[in-house]
Amino acid sequence: MKFLLQRLAFYVFTAWAALTINFFIPRLIPGDPVTSLINKFQGQMSTEAINSLYVLFGLDKNASLWSQYVDYWGQVFHGDLGLSFTFFPTPVADILKQSLPWTIALVGITTFASFMIGTSLGVIAGWRRGSIMDGLLPVTTFLSSIPYFWLGLLAITLLAGPNSFFPSSGGYEPGLVPGWTGSFIGSAIQHSLLPALTILISSVSGWILTMRNMMVTVASEDYITVAHAKGLSERRVMVSYAARNALLPNVSGFALSLGFIVGGTLLVEIVFSYPGIGYNLFQAVGAKDYPLMQGVFLVITLSVLVANLLADVAYLLLDPRTRKEG
Amino acid sequence: MSAPTSTITAVTPEGPEVPSNPAAPAKRRRLRFIANPKAATGLVVLAFFCLIAIIGPWVAPYDPSARSSDLIQPPSGKHWFGTTHLGQDIFSQVLVGTRGVMFVGLLAGLVATALSILIGVSAGFLGGAADDGLSALSNVFLVIPALPLIIIVASTIPSAGDLMVALVIGFTSWAWGARVLRAQTLSLRRRDYVEAARATGESTWRLITFEIMPNLTAIIASGFVGTVIFAVMSEITLAFIGISTISEWNWGTILFWAQSQQALAQGAWWWFVPAGLAIAVLGTALSLINFGIDEFVSPRLRSSGHTKVKTKDGHSVRMRVGFTPVLSSSREPVTPVVQRRAEEEVA
Fold first, then answer.
1. Among B154, B289, B146, B167, which residue's Cα sits nearest to residue B226?
2. Which of A264, B174, B265, B332 is the least crowded, having the fewest Cβ atoms under 10 Å away?
3. Where does the record place the ABC transmembrane type-1 domain (chain A) (predicted)?
4. What ipTM score was computed for the predicted complex, to two decimals?
């Protein structure tokens, strides 16, 4: 319990740090891109909306930095992230609410699947060191060195086309209305197959490699020799003795590298025009839509923090030592 | 954008032995690193890209931005990698673009490595409140997704050139290295040789640079290589989504134009394949160097060639670390130890 509380405190601290970074970045922009955007949309915005942008981007030069900071926090807690200019006049929070489920479904499931598949393959590769599996390592290294987005481009060229089963862009068939209907879910799955495959192929090798190396290290421990000496089956020694112990560092590694992975997978959304957060970020960058950019950064960071917390809970369940009282 | 590939987390290099002839073993040790086929391959490929980065702009057959009338031509003798929608030569663009990629990768790697040494080693060595503060700082930077942060910072800077991009990447991606270095420094700082140096009245500064740092070389090197991989990927990503200036050529810029001009729809595979392959090959080379460093430090990780041993009577046994197989093939009966000892006493 103490472990979990410590982690929780750390995540709260990190969330505070991320929000503070988010507060300072726009204040360091030389010039005033947001003011010019506001001027461009003059007359179409309510005073309230302009006001919230003033608070978020520190355009009110008369207020002290501290009072700006306090106002900023008040606004973020109300879920007010300003208006998006790309999708004028939709508030940023609404856009993110719409696209977040897509990203969580695609990136969440594929990252988890890639971790599971990579870890299982790594268990076998590490256990049978020197077998064909080791020959596969350079191949997977090459695959993981390919940028996600480029693999996506390649997948579109090779597999998607007008007559192909795989659609090349979008999250669902244009005519369908999002909802819990069979045809919509089927279409959504069909559209997510290719992006998911892309993420899977390029992210799986990292897990294979770390798990293999952990297995090789664990395989020389005394308890493995004892397990062999007891005459336990090969399979049992591999899974319940070696893999179980080798898994722990991999799980904590998983938590730490989530930030890297999520960053990369957002690009896949861009290539496939998948209606998630990553695609929003791309649109925002193209249009210099700072409110949307900031909102995307905030949501991604908070999601990664939640995912980290889940990984910690998993670690707690896997490692009995952290459960010890005292 | 994968996780850092190095897995060195808890290596415990011993203090340097004192050889009778200092020059020869040192040389052999260095050669051993190069003799590792993975490291050797990686170094050769990396050297090749460095060479291209230096001479690329001079040997490029065309000006990468110059337009011509050969619009969207597939590869031919005249244009090795084909041409773009404006008739620009893609081979020249790849050659010229190498310099920006290598420059940003290496500079960001240097900045991040310097920061990670500064923060990681001082956190590990000083301990106490300084350690708590610095580790919290690096954990925060580790958990915050780096790429979106880089994208936002880079897009708020007007006309982000190569130098700016390199600095932004360097200042946001030092955390992993700092974490690993801190862990290793913690395990080193109470070693006998460090205590001995401390007892002779060495200053803290000298302890860190001359006693601790040499034993961190492998970790620093692999951290550097890992950061370069990440920096190259991030830089290309920035160019690809159109944040850094598109007037400077790099591989990401080529992909940016290929994407925005619908190269895919036109079937112009030559437009994005060469740049992507170059990225993948460079990334693989750097990863291979990192595997070489890992295996150099921890020989157990090597993929050993002959683990299967065939015994005379046709059984095959697989050798494994920590597990000695019993071969049941010995022809002559095993002499019991007690009996042999008895025979020796008689003799």
1. B289
2. B332
3. 100-311
4. 0.79
